[in-house]
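Question: Now follow the chain.
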Amino acid sequence: MPTEVAADNRAASEVSGLDALELGPKKEKGRIGRRIWAATWPKLLAIAIVVGIWQLVFLSEWRPVYVLPPPADVFAELGTLITEPRFWDGVRLTMTRAITGFALAVAIGTLIGALVSQFKPLRAAIGSLITGLQTMPSIMWFPLAILLFQLGEEAILFVVVLGAAPSVANGLISGIDYVPRTWLRVGQVMGMTGIAKYRHLILPASLPSFVSGLKQGWAFSWRSLMAGELLVIVPGTVSIGVRMQTARDLNDAVSVLAYIIVVLVIGILVDQLFNGADRALRKRWGLTAS
């Protein structure tokens, strides 16, 4: 009896040892702060360098102060803007357009990418067209969009979708193309067919490339949206683009630069979200250290 108890204890200790190997060493609490600082200080350094160069150019009097104001004036204006409710109304409208257009682009691009990747005649017919649309400047679509939808929200969304959907489709196509053939054969041996094959094998394997396509699609949609808000001013709406255009008409360089910073900050924040999703996928696939 004592021998059996000892054996059970030994087995339990071995299992707990394996569990410890599975879980890995506990993370130090201090590592979180160091990781945040390691990710933050390069961005702070980049901002300091840009602001320093900007200040030097201002001091050189290369352009008059009413054309190129100093950083202090622009940041002071930015501090005033973010305290105004009207500013946040404009940001809300712009982000609503961005999210709506990008969601439509993801739905359309995913559907097209899935169809093109599976049907060779369809790929032969429109595969190069998708790449051509991806490289086409979005601003070229606005004359057609205005003819089709006049000065309305639909004109802006039309161009945003055309700017982002090809990148999303190409990301999914590329991800499916690079699924290892051995995985497909294993799935076939396991009896995976149809929707189950896509759900449990192809789509998970194509996620890293698909996320890259989503990230690129967002970049295209954001640029298209900013161009659209400058060119297509919908009556009764005040967005970031409208406010920037108004500032330009009034020769208010301080406000123009402040809104440029706002657009840049929003773009960086969204890019960080995509980077976080990409890191999570890479960690899940064992491509980075935990």
